[in-house]
């Protein structure tokens, strides 16, 4: 800790996923053969029709600053997408385009939270939710779940966690890190609790919407009695393999969108012009255009679950979306492996990096100290070799 720095940044945790990715790169640069299963990044190339749109934007000489909240025609494409895929009606004034869904989430915490406001985080949750809330002065409050409940919270657990200080609930479905998908029925039970507390705003992170193996996706905002207090966060990084293009967006109440526009105007202003033009084309095309990726992820899920079932000590469930498995590895706690004591998920994740040369992420970063996250957004060859190495390192 450096006392010359702000208390804010000194108390902030480093993103566990990005830290593991940096460590992986460092080891690879040293010539060590590391298989990375830590990052949530599709390994597919960007679809050609999206590349063509970006090239056309360059040819058309797009180069200027963009509107803070996004090009008008991109906002119209987002509105069309929300109507087509989610049966949600929005006006342009309810849409804000940002530099990735991560900025969308950061904007929301900054404009909605005051010092001491509580934020409910159904655990496990994405690594940045808690620290984004803390930076904005909020107090994260975990609602635990377990592998036995497919990492989903109950209505009873939600109600028990609510206090007079509760301001937000933030969750993802499909979930990062567990791959869990809340059904319409499950969301309705949660909504029946929330309608009793009209001051609570819902942030629904739906970035993995299309990587869904259940056959249907439902948004909390689709309930008429929740629409005016739910903000939907989405983007193009996962479904379209556009992680580095950094385009995210929200749809939500106009008063919240205006506040995000104001906040963003003082931080980054508008998102990249070429990426915005390409995103118009991405969103104007139906989800069927990227079905080949979803089908491939489904096969990889089957493969990794099968291989994990052959490794003693890994307790898994069947994730319904995204491209992660989140096994419970508490079986190894208290054991000594090759002279190294394993007492936490972080110990276990580090052991796999050092001994199996496989990068994973500790579940502690996601609010679950009994698990680790493995991404199967990797080739089948890499998945097979990673599981072989892990099995060998644990024998």
TrEMBL record:
Q: Which UniProt keywords apply?
A: Aminotransferase, Pyridoxal phosphate, Transferase
Requisite cofactors: pyridoxal 5'-phosphate
Q: Which domain of life is it from?
A: Bacteria
EC number(s) recorded for this UniProt protein: 2.6.1.-
Mention one GO biological process in which this protein takes part, according to its record.
amino acid metabolic process
Cite the Gene3D superfamilies for this sequence.
Aspartate Aminotransferase, domain 1, Type I PLP-dependent aspartate aminotransferase-like (Major domain)
Q: Name one GO molecular function term.
A: pyridoxal phosphate binding
Which InterPro entries did the record assign?
Answer: Aminotransferase_I/II_large, AspAT/PAT-like, NHTrfase_class1_PyrdxlP-BS, PyrdxlP-dep_Trfase, PyrdxlP-dep_Trfase_major, PyrdxlP-dep_Trfase_small
Q: Which Pfam families match?
A: Aminotran_1_2
EC class, as a word, reads transferase
Q: Which PANTHER family match?
A: ASPARTATE AMINOTRANSFERASE (PTHR46383)
Q: What is the name listed in the Swiss-Prot or TrEMBL entry for this protein?
A: Aminotransferase
Source organism per UniProt:
Aequorivita lipolytica
